[in-house]
Write a structure and sequence with these properties.
The protein is of the alpha/beta class and about 260 residues long. Helix content is about 50%, strand content about 10%. The chain is globular.
Amino acid sequence: MGKTLHLHVGLPKCGSSSLQAYLIRLRPKLLDQGYDYLDISDSSTGNLTPYVKSLSPGGGDIVFRHFNSGRSTENASDELFAAIDASPAPNLILSAESVAKRRRTHDFREITDRFETVQVHLALRPRVEWVVSHYAQGIKTGKYRGPLETFLQSPRFQDHVVPMLTFADHFSYWQDRVGPEYLHLHFAGSRFPSMVDQFLSAIGLQSKQEMEPAGRRNQSPSAFVLSALATVRRQNRAQFLKVQKKIIRLAERLDPSP
């Protein structure tokens, strides 16, 4: 009997970090139920992220290397395929929010063709919330600086962010790839169950309260702290990443309304 792949493709800023942290923490319990969240990355990223980063020139961006100093992308492809072949579980789980960004240049068939069935999990979020969260993350990682208004008027917003927010395009792409019965939509936001609960329900497992409580991950700093990060003078992203925790600690002490 062939294996089933559950492929979580993002979008970014839609609860991926919480889901990935939960899956790696619950890996032994998931294995007991026939689901293998492959152990091919550290806990700070999705397990498919090193492979996706290896598709980029230079093996990934500076933020990935900063937060995954012990993880190389050079052998990510070999490690991924070896882990797929070695897993005894009938159901495998792979997750990387950056799959959504790479689908225009890489169709991932070298992965999906290894499985009899592929179930794709696509997460969406209200666009305004998504943009604010994306901007906040960009400030934290040194990608952006300056006020939100400047970011919204920038060429990067029009060329890179707006296409990401064309949700119908993402939906149509994956529906054509796997068929409507194998595409699962998840929604991030206070009106919906947690991303973990939605994912577990889609693959036919218990809710997180029944398996184990999941902690929140990747919460955004307050507007005051973000303003401090946005206005700090920086030489380059590597230098900024090294001092950002110190800046956040200092700004949090002065925050009038944390």
